[in-house]
Structures are given as C-alpha cells and as structure tokens.
Amino acid sequence: MGAEQGLDHLAMLSPVEAHYQSLVRGFSSVTTRLRNYSFYAFWVVHYKRQVRNDARRVFEDRTRRVEALYALAAAQRTNETGVAGSTFADEKIEEGGDPIDFRVETDYETPQKNRYLAPRGGAFPGVYFGQMSEMGLIGRGKRHGLPVPDEPCYALADAYAASHSDFIDGFLRCAEVGQVTRAELEPMVAMAPSSLDQESDEAAILRRLLMGEDGADLSINRRATLLAILEIAKQTDSGTEAESPSVKITEDMLRWWFIENEPNGAHADIHRSWQHYQVGDMVRLVYESLLNHAISVLEDFNEGLPAPELVSELVADIPGVPLEVWLTTLAEGPESLRELQARGMVHDAPLGDILAPLARLWRDWRHRLGDLGESYKEAPGQQTCFTELRWIEAHLTDSAETALGQLLFHRVLRRHLEVAARKFRIQTSYTYLIEVEEARLRARGKVNVNPSGPRLATAIRFLEDVDLLKQGRITPRGLAYLEAAL
C-alpha cells in the first residue's frame, strides 16, 4: 500500500502495485533487513534436519520461540531495527530479572495483547515465507504445507550457523525451553542484522542472493533494479553529505530520477519500467485528488447535489476551448513534474493545478502509449495510466469543459461508486466516500492521497546491509561490484 494506510477507492492502486512488485521480487515493505533471511534459512534447515515434525502446530510453536529469542538477542544492540518483536524484546530486557522467561509471550493460547507478536503464527508465515520463496530459498511441502528448504537455503543456513558456532546450540536450547539467562543472551547479539561480518561467507551468499546472481526469472528484474540503483549512486556521488546532500540515494530521490532522466545505457530497460511505475502512480494521485475535489464541493451542500449539478459546479471555470488546447496550456511552464505534483496535492488546490501533472504526462507520453500498455495490460473494468491517457487522446477535439465533465462523472465519481459497491458486495466493507440518496450525492469522507511505497526503500536498506551502499552513497565494495557486473 501507500506511504499511509488507506483504501484503493478508485481501484487504480492495485495495477501500480502489481507493476512495481514485478520489478523487486523477493522482498517487501515489511521485510526490512536482509540478514533476517539468513536467520529464517537457518531455522527452516534446522527444523528439517533435526525436528522433522510435519505438524503445523509443532512448527509454529517452535518458530514463535526462536523468533522471540532472536528479537531478544538483537535488542541488545543499540538502535537495532527491522526485527519482529522488538517492542516485546526491549520491554522484556528492561524488566530486569534473570533468567528472562518468554514462555507466556510465545504460548499458542496466550491472548493476542500479551503475545510477543500479534499474529498467532509469528512473523514468518505472513512476512517471510512468500518472499523467501520468491528468492528461491524455500518451497512449500505438498503434503503438510510447511516450508521446505531449497539448495541455496542450505548454503545460507550453514554459513549463518558457522558465523555463530560458539553459541548457536545454546540458542536453540534456550529457545526450546523459553528461558535465557543474561549471560547466555549476551554473545547472541552477534545475530543482530547490523552485526553481519561483511567479509564472511554468509555476507557473500547474501549479496549473491540479493543481487539475483542465480539468473532465475524472478531475479532478473530485481537484479537490474539494484544495479541501476548502484549506477545512479555512482553517477550522483560527488562528495560528502555536508558538501552535496542532494545526492543521497533515497526512495523519493529515485522516483524522480527515473522519471526526469532519459533511459540509456545498460540499465535503460529497467529504468523505463520504473518510469512506467511513476507515470501510473502519478495518474492515480491526480484521479484521487479529483475525487477529493468533488467531495470538497459536495461538503458545501448539506442536502447534496444531483450528479449533473455537481459536475456543472466542478467545471464551471473550465474554458470552452478544445481539450487539447487547454491541456497544452496546463502542461507548459518551467516547473518540473515533481513541482507540478506538489502544487496539485495542496489542500483546496484549484482544478487546473490538480490536472497540470496529468497534462504534462499526456504531453510527454502521448506518443509512447504503447509502451505503457506493455506494463499495464488491459483488463475488463480496469483503469490505469494507459487507459486514462488513451481516453484523453480520444477526446482532444471535445471542448475542455465537456471532456472534463465526462471524465469527472464517468471515470472518477461513477468509478468510485462502482468500486465501493463491489467491495461491499464481495467483502461487506463499506468504503463509500460519496453516498447516493434520493438521486443526490452526499459527501461522507475523503481519500488520504499519498504516493505508493514501491519497495525502493527496502532495496536501499538491503544494499546497505551488505555494504554496497552506505548512508545512501555507493561504497568501494559497491563500485567494485558494479564494475564487475557490467
């Protein structure tokens, strides 16, 4: 989902998510540290080799205990991030007492509010199972449905065990009994994600895994994306953070770098794919802002408005010139796309400001719609940047007032009502922001309009975890890796 949680009120976010997910298979916005894959690989292999029990209840019982102890181990490291159960672990360590007893917090029957994590099965099933499958580390047993390690998983697990050979048996023993003394826990801080030895076999395996060196289909786009990020970091790195803070690689920086620069060189194809992501997300933001704009007008009418009257209110100040002329005017000017989007998302922005990013995208992409269509395949009832820019192209000779009125009615207002009705019918979720009563539309709420979160922040974090980036800048190891990969 986006930067803040919300509903997909126009069903335009789902195609955008599907597109960016295809570019970064193997991790998500909640798989926040790469070394967690090592830990779970170790656990899955140990369970397969030593426990060998196909009962789901047994697997989940054991997994909850190792997850909780892993969180306790990592919590000893100041400001450690990205480990599930860290809140529980911080509180447990601060309580004092020795040994630390975590049997209640990990018991299957413990009420949710008292568990180390809210999900009864812990973090692994919902967070890591799917991503590790996409990474080629594990599969699912056909008979029992439990994780089954693939060949790369064994190599990573053994390397992880070797990194902690002096206490790993004690870790497993303490996890099984649900208690650990502070003396036993102390050396386990080496398991924390930030404790990774960058010269170890484990780190080398993690780099190969992350960078998709296996050549698998699910790894190709991820590898291309990560290499492109390293290349951008190389091109934009020109000094220390104090000298040039703008060159730091962040998710937001990458979004705009991809859309504002022309694809070229070895990473042109993946660069173009990320441009398609940004176009799709920007069109979605414009449409959601249009929905909010309509809702704002409705809020001034306590009795609501019939749809034709609402549309008339919305387009009252739109000129009668052809749509093409009006869009061309909106698209002109020195502002960047980023600046246009920021202006259009201001509270109570006028209609022209809201539509200016769409006009600029139409101008820049009208002759490349086929490219967008490759990334956003047509599906019945689906609205994407491809369908919407194509719709605009088909109505260029209509007056701007008429065309925008049709867009607002058919592709925003009616679209929202159809999406909300479908969610109510299928999910029994009431998501109407505009209600219809006695043929009048009434405002009920507004969209929380935010850019989506395309996992680029996770990509950056993972590159930093294996010393290819550091604080948003390419490292000597990263430069060497990039040079060897080209």
Specify the biggest β-sheet.
2 strands, antiparallel
Number of helix segments?
22
**Radius of gyration, whole Å:** 26 Å
SSE sequence, one letter per element: HHHHEHHEEHHEHHHHHHHHHHHHEEHEEH
Low-confidence stretches: 1-5
What portion of residues is helical? 55-70%
Percentage of residues in strands: under 5%
Shape: globular
| DSSP, total strands | 8
User: What's the overall average pLDDT, rounded?
Assistant: 94
Give the termini distance in whole angstroms.
34 Å
- Secondary-structure-based class equals mainly alpha
The domain tally reads 2
- Biggest β-sheet: strands ordered side by side in the sheet: 1-4
Quaternary organisation: single chain
Task: Give the SSE layout.
Layout: H1 13-23, H2 35-51, H3 56-75, H4 86-94, E1 100-101, H5 103-106, H6 124-134, E2 138-140, E3 147-149, H7 151-163, H8 168-177, E4 179-180, H9 182-185, H10 201-210, H11 217-236, H12 251-260, H13 268-298, H14 307-314, H15 323-331, H16 337-344, H17 351-365, H18 369-375, H19 385-394, H20 400-427, E5 434-437, E6 440-443, H21 456-465, E7 469-470, E8 473-474, H22 476-485
